[in-house]
Amino acid sequence: MTTTTPDVDAVVVGAGFGGIYMLHKLRNELGMTVQGFEKGGGVGGTWYFNRYPGAKSDTESYIYRYSFDKQLLQEYDWHTRYLDQPDILAYLEHVVERYDLARSIKLNTEVKSAHWNVDTALWTIRTADGQQLTCRWLVNALGLLAKSNIPDIPGLKSFAGALVHTNAWPKDLDITGKRVGVIGTGSTGTQFICAAAKMVEHLTVFQRTPQYSVPSGNGPVDPAEVAETKKNFDKIWDQVKNSVVAFGFEESTVEAMSVSEEERRRVFQENWDKGNGFRFMFGTFCDIATNPEANAAAAQFIRDKIKEIVKDPETARKLTPTDLYAKRPLCNEDYYETFNRPNVSLVSLRETPIEEIVPEGVRTSDGVLHELDVLVLATGFDAVDGNYRAMDLRGRGGKHINEHWTEGPTSYLGITKAGFPNMFMILGPNGPFTNLPPSIESQVEWIADLIAKADREGLRSVEPTFEAERRWTDTCKEIADATLFPKAESWIFGANIPGKKHAVMFYMGGISSYRQQLADEAASGYRGFALE
Ligand code: N01
């Protein structure tokens, strides 16, 4: 066994919400030498890349931010109920400046490989542009939804106009006055559709599966409300971190079928009027995501709204979902209303699938050529493990992460992986399914505590046991199986990528319980770990 001095104490890969805070913790608070790498041309992660019109957070502004800096919470304002992408990017850039982090982040630098060396107990990191360095600690903050899913559609590359994925939206692409087509109607697609319809000459929406969307209730926020919120931030964060989904409302404890039909509709209507997708799913009744009958009642309420809102009955029919209401819930300002506009048309790919893409546009099975200047792929992500698998990431014995993840991605606590000592993941597989910033903070703080302990005690390596990881995976699966989410085809279980194994990828027990488990693990002296 040899010990070599590493080039830096830690490497942090990714400069989004997770990487930025991790870098601050390790460098500014623990006094370590840290090198950050970011493949984008700026910081911000998701919020750097997803610049498509309409991109915004569907968590309310006041809790779509860090909570650790009380001063910053007082200083940084918001003006709308939800933050648009430029606002969030500006916020993250501000945080980077506030903590003088830019000098530690190499932009435009993709990490291609990370290999563990058992003899030196160091990681060797290589970047796409040929840099190499060693570190003791490796923190991957690669993004949960960061690897684009590009569908395999015949002729895709032959399109003569601008072909863009929403996750790689060019800074200079202006769709004003253009003929635009969009494939995909998830959170991204529906946000894009609402915004683009107001800008383009014509928008053609290619929809494979209809979606349940509820109003977001977006709009300006009164400065007096902002001031009041700032006074109550301690209480607010306490509530958020002790809730289930961390969206700032109290989750309901009432079962949908325990009340009369009239009362159910009243509650649905009340929450429809308040706005927010998570509120509609978790704030109305406690069992919408678990009880098929409750789920059907919520789904029917939304279907009735579609019929009421959409003027053309044929368009309304095509827009109406028939499956479970068990994907990540959507909310938008005016999704269904958008289809009443004369410049928006809907193509149901279930009825007329895309036959091929040609230089002029998209040809569907009914022989129609939809002529386009811009074709937007809002087709989502190879979520959760996509970016890990894309990296040449090798732990003990030179074993690639893919060799460990043949049955689906696993971790211990959504943060660590057996066989990968001194490596951490922010929002790794089987992490919490919540509003993300408070979960990210919980993970970053826990990682920093463990690293600090290892340094204090002169530990050479920390690594979870395979047994702890197996138990955590079983727990996540057990909780997920008690919900309806695995029964819906979505990215949450990897169902959106052809050939990807359906596997549990989230801890669905809520942020409060998740934080408790992190605290218990630390309090037990890290009983799920081998500390050497
Ligand atoms: O991706 P998705 P997303 N042919 O996978 C369709 C987060 N997010 O980017 O349903 C035709 O949900 C696919 O159709 P189907 C949030 O967590 C957050 O929209 O599979 N269509 C679907 O309609 C969200 O859940 C915000 O039949 C194809 C769409 O593309 C997550 O990101 C904003 C196709 C993909 O939907 C992912 O959302 C935006 C094909 N070959 C995103 N392949 C916030 O507000 C796919 N589709 C914070």
From TrEMBL:
<feature type="domain" description="FAD/NAD(P)-binding">
    <location>
        <begin position="9"/>
        <end position="213"/>
    </location>
</feature>
<keyword id="KW-0560">Oxidoreductase</keyword>
<dbReference type="Pfam" id="PF07992">
    <property type="entry name" value="Pyr_redox_2"/>
</dbReference>
<dbReference type="InterPro" id="IPR036188">
    <property type="entry name" value="FAD/NAD-bd_sf"/>
</dbReference>
<dbReference type="GO" id="GO:0016709">
    <property type="term" value="F:oxidoreductase activity, acting on paired donors, with incorporation or reduction of molecular oxygen, NAD(P)H as one donor, and incorporation of one atom of oxygen"/>
</dbReference>
<dbReference type="InterPro" id="IPR023753">
    <property type="entry name" value="FAD/NAD-binding_dom"/>
</dbReference>
<keyword id="KW-0521">NADP</keyword>
<keyword id="KW-0285">Flavoprotein</keyword>
<dbReference type="InterPro" id="IPR050775">
    <property type="entry name" value="FAD-binding_Monooxygenases"/>
</dbReference>
<protein>
    <submittedName>
        <fullName>Predicted flavoprotein CzcO associated with the cation diffusion facilitator CzcD</fullName>
    </submittedName>
</protein>
<keyword id="KW-0274">FAD</keyword>
